[in-house]
Amino acid sequence: MKTNILIFLVIGLFLFCFGFSINGQDTQAVKIDVKEHVLKNGMKVLILERHNAPTVACYVYFRVGSVHEPAGQSGIAHLLEHLLFKGTHTIGTTNYQKELELTKRQDEIMERLETLAKLKQSRPADKPSAEDMEIKTLENELKEVNKALQSYMVAKEYTQIYEKNGARDLNASTSQYTTNYYCQLPSNKLELWAWLESNHLTNPVLRGFYEERDTVLEERRQRSEDNPNGLLWEEFICTMFKAHPYHRPIIGWRSDIESLKRSQVDDYFKRFYGPNNAIAVIVGDVKSDEVIRLMKRYFEAIPSGTPVAPVTTVEPEQFGERRVTVELESQPVLVIGYKGVTVGQPDDYVFDIISNILSDGRTSRFYKKLVLDKKMCLSIDAFNSAQKDIGFFGVYAVPQAPFTTAAVEKAVYEELELLKKEPVSEKELQRAKNNLEVSFLRGLNSNEQMAERIGYNEITSSWRYLLDWLPTCQKVTAQNVMDTANKYFLPTKRTVGTIVTKKKAEPQINTDEHGSDREAH
């Protein structure tokens, strides 16, 4: 009982502060008092003061992600994200000059070893090659260089500085359009954050490069190559997007990652990580004037870089259904996507309503019919993946035996056809709006979620999208739902991906000369 009262008090407080109504009627404008400031070098600072707890969420978004990677260097944005936690000229090392000398020799040896390995591959495998002796010599030298490098490195010093000062949730993420570095700190440690992150922009060191490259390769193996869902998703996205760089996996292709050089990552950093391509989002118990003072002191002297160019490749119109099937010894899975949704367009808001009607909670259409009533699915979700250029509306389902992906696919289409032909009831429409409203309110309770929402939306459109999103969703009508369903839910706009359970190979049966059967082992 006390917990329920507390929840209602918290929701009531946010309704009062942000001007919402929980029943969706008379929704006022959303009030999020973000202060904006742009430094002389072009770095944008977005500040939201919230004095309910002595903490602050600090996010730095760079306007660069997987869609901006040069040809043959997929995964470079994600690898750089890893490497920037390794420190700077003064953090993570006991002697940077000695480390620099050894690093140069390490790169020379690695480059030569890779060249020799390719030459050796062209020789007969069963005969000693001319490269064998040089490879052995270089490998021995590399061990000594790596050992010497380790003696100068201070492992995890960058993260330990944060942790000793009360930081939590220190992490980073890479997406199609942005790379984001973030943490939450006691608000009196904001200057420490400003010093550390400005030091990153001016004096980064890509130490431990080859070890971290191997870590990313292992991450790729776990996420995609040995993960049925990850593998299906990769194949599905590559099938849906033919021309636009969305088809490039964020983690990168294995061959590209294996061939990445430290010099390439360094060039990528210098090209894209200028302050003019960065957005700092500060949310918490701070004063805007003090934040701006610190940002000027620590960031404003950093020179601007080259602005990130927009993606100019336009995904061509799709003229027919596309399908991809992955055969694995795994649980069957179905994913369906309809192309055509971008952030902030009218259909974006309608799709948020549709996804809620179809799959949010036990009263949603998919859950009631396909999970509870017909028991066709173990789980099923609809989602709106609006993006900066072109996105899609998707459905993800896990069939329950004995139902197949084909049977579930047919059932999904039946539900989508109902949206085209029959107006949703006012009660169902209002329930979806209420669900979105409550979900939005819950997100306001967290400094981290607010910082993430502000920063991500500033990258994809504008942080002011947050001001318009809920009121616009509340205006969606049953006719809007029908019109959007009829516009997008077409076979010609559809991409379908499935995991089909691969049958185990039957053991071979050999018949010996006496006519008896035996298994071949």
What does this entry show, briefly?
With 521 residues, the protein is of the alpha+beta class. The chain has helices spanning 2-18, 76-83, 96-121, 132-152, 157-164, 190-202, 209-225, 228-240, 254-259, 262-272, 288-299, 346-359, 365-373, 405-421, 426-444, 447-460, 465-474, 478-488; strands at residues 34-38, 44-49, 55-62, 168-174, 179-186, 278-284, 322-328, 333-341, 377-385, 391-399, 494-501, 509-511, 517-519.
Count of DSSP E strands? Answer: 13
N→C terminal distance: 65 Å
Low-confidence stretches: 1-28, 511-521
Residues in helix, %: 40-55%
Q: Rg to the nearest angstrom? A: 27 Å
Summing up helix and strand content along with how strands pair, one would put the structural category as alpha+beta
Strand count, sense and barrel status of the largest sheet are: 6 strands, mixed
Neighbour order of strands in the largest sheet: 1-2-6-3-5-4
Overall shape: it is globular
The residue-averaged pLDDT reads 90
Number of helical runs?
18
Characteristic key phrases:
single chain; globular; 18 helices; six-stranded mixed beta sheet; five-stranded mixed beta sheet; 521 residues; alpha+beta
